[in-house]
Amino acid sequence: MTILEQIITIGIAAVVTMLTRFLPFWLYPNDQKTPKYIHLLGNFLPPAILGILVIYCYSDTLTSVNLATYLSVIAGMITVFLQLWRKNMLLSIFGGTFCYIILLALF
Predict the structure, then answer these.
(1) How far is Cα 73 from Cα 61, in angstroms, rounded to an integer?
(2) Whole-structure pTM over 0.90, yes or no?
(3) How far is the C-alpha of 19 from the C-alpha of 105, rounded, in Å?
(4) What are the residue ranges of helices labelled H in the chain?
(5) Tens-place pLDDT, residues 5-42
(6) Contacts of 29 (CB under 8 A, 6+ apart)
(7) What is the pLDDT, as a whole number, of residue 105?
(8) Residue 83 gets which letter from DSSP?
């Protein structure tokens, strides 16, 4: 890519990112009531996206059963346990990642 193409690409990415951030506030200002389907999407989409990410992360791992498969499943279970126990997203993410790295280093 030339410098001009890189600048155009970065500019388009910045505009699209800002548009996705500002569009909800332009469509539904504070004085207007938010439609019911937006609230429904707000309740439904986060667990659905999380489920898709979990399926994507384990899709390659579960096709071939080896030691790395068991380690990733153990780390995933530790992550779920930490989330259910403390209900702290950062603790769950860092704890599960830390356990996975330690398990990889030990085995």
Answers:
(1) 9
(2) no
(3) 43
(4) 3-27, 36-59, 67-86, 89-106
(5) 999 999 999 999 999 999 988 988 888 888 899 899 99
(6) none
(7) 95
(8) H
In angstroms, the CA 66 to CA 37 distance is 44
CB atoms within 10 A of CB 69: 15
How confident is the model at residue 52, as a pLDDT? 95
Q: How confident is the model at residue 77 (pLDDT cuts 50, 70, 90)?
A: very high
Q: Which two tokens stand for residue 101?
A: 């790295």
Q: Which residue type does 102 have?
A: I
Burial class (CB in 10 A: 0-12, 13-18, 19+), 74: middle
- Joined tokens for residue 9: 């690409």
Torsion-angle region of residue 87: left (phi > 0), alpha (psi -120 to 50) or beta? left
